[in-house]
Every structure is written in structure tokens, then in C-alpha cells.
Design brief:
Blueprint: E1 37-39, E2 45-47, E3 55-61, H1 66-83, E4 89-96, H2 100-110, E5 116-119, H3 125-128, E6 137-141, E7 147-152, H4 156-171
Parallel strand pairs: 3-4, 4-5
Antiparallel strand pairs: 1-2, 3-6, 6-7
Length: 174
Amino acid sequence: MLLSCNSSVKKQDTVQVQNTDDRQYLVKVGDPAPDFEMSFPDGKKVKLSDLRGKVVMLQFTASWCGVCRKEMPHIEKEIWQKHKENPQFVLYGIDREEPAEKIQVLRDATGATYPIGMDPDANIFGLYAEKDAGITRNIIIDRSGKIVMLTRLYEEKEFNEMVSLIDKMLSAES
């Protein structure tokens, strides 16, 4: 079963999302997710295209972002703790324009235990949104590498729709 947020699938398989045209995204639902390589504070690296076949959640964040700090405990509790053992799911925070030390400050402040990588020049962010656009942002990518949901800021209804979409995608046949 293919889960998406576009009109080519059955209504019961879709999640209604807010119009993202005014959110300064450079990508849209249905687009292939732009590929990138990201480093983590411990020196490990990941390339998005190597995650094909998995449901991927990317969360753009920063220690100075109050909305990020509000959202991250919800991501931790309602998404990461529920799915972190599922080999078909990957969640990465992507810290915008900060050194590794700030990532640890953010993790400590929010209780986030999911992996958070570095985007020191906002080049990864710039693949998905206008470089001067704000955060927090979440991008949900299906197993084929296509974007199925884009969020901006923290809005409880939209967040719950994202949680529901991830749950459905992970319970669907691969």
C-alpha cells in the first residue's frame, strides 16, 4: 500500500495537510527528497539515499529555536520512543548552523535521544527550504524516497496527523 498526501490515492490513505505554499519550502509533497550527506558530532556520516526502503523523518532544528524546544519532547515521546527499534524507520534531527556543543545543549534541554546531525552552513536545509526561512520543520519521506508530508512550526493537529501518517506507513506492507 502506498501512503501519500496527494490526490492520486484513496481518501482513507491520505492525511490532510495545511497548504505549504506560504511556508518557504523549495520542495513539495510528491517530490523526490533531495539527497545529502550529513555528519554527526561523533564523526559518523549518513547519506539520505542510503536509507531508501525505510520511512524517514527529518527534523530541522536549532538550540535557539523556542518552537523546536517545544516540539522535540513530543517527537521523542510520540515518535522516537514508539519506533526507534523498528529497522524500517529512521529519524534524524538536523541542527542548523551550530557547532556540536550546541547540539548537546539542545539534547539536554529537550530530553531528545534521537540522533541529531550537523548542518553547519545550512546547505542541507537549503535543499528543502529557502535558506532564510525559519524552523522547526519536519519532512516525512516514504520508502521510495518521495516526500509525503511537510510541516512547519509546531501545531498540535498537524503534529498528530504526522504521527498518524508515520504509524500507518510503518504498519503497511513494505
